Amino acid sequence: MFGSLGFTELILILFIVLIIFGAGKLPQLGEGVGKAIKGFKKSVHEADAIEAEAQAAQQQMAAAPQQPIQEPMAQAPASVEQQAATAHSVSRG
């Protein structure tokens, strides 16, 4: 697990940590490291779930046939050009 670190090296590291932090801080230190690892694992799994949802949505969009959206045509009562031509012919006449 630790590669080339043997039992003696691990004991030496733990002894140095004990000297630096003291016996009272070790439980708090262990709890903090445990929470950090748990939070990291949770965020990795959530990121994987988000990616899977995005891929599924993308595949669903690609598989669904694309239907053109038909917009209802609203007819204006009279266009501006027609109103201008009517006003212009009435004023001449």
Number of strands: 0
| Percent helix | over 70%
What does the average pLDDT come to?
77
Number of helices: 3
Order of helices and strands: HHH
User: What oligomeric assembly is this protein in?
Assistant: single chain
Structural class: mainly alpha
Percentage beta strand = under 5%
Q: How many strands, what sense, and barrel or not for the largest sheet?
A: none
Report the span from N to C terminus.
101 Å
Q: List segments where confidence is low: pLDDT < 50 over at least 5 consecutive residues.
A: none
Question: Whole-number radius of gyration?
Answer: 37 Å
Shape: elongated
Task: Provide tags for this entry.
single chain, 93 residues, mainly alpha, 3 helices, 0% strand
Description:
With 93 residues, the chain is an all-alpha fold. It has a domain of 38 residues. Helix content is 71%, strand content 0%. The protein is built from three helices and no strands. The longest helix is centred in the middle third of the chain and has 38 residues. The chain is elongated and about 100 Å long. The termini are far apart. The mean pLDDT is 77.
Topology:
Blueprint: H1 7-21, H2 26-63, H3 80-92
Give a short summary of the structure.
The protein is mainly alpha-helical and 93 residues long. Helix content is 71%, strand content 0%.
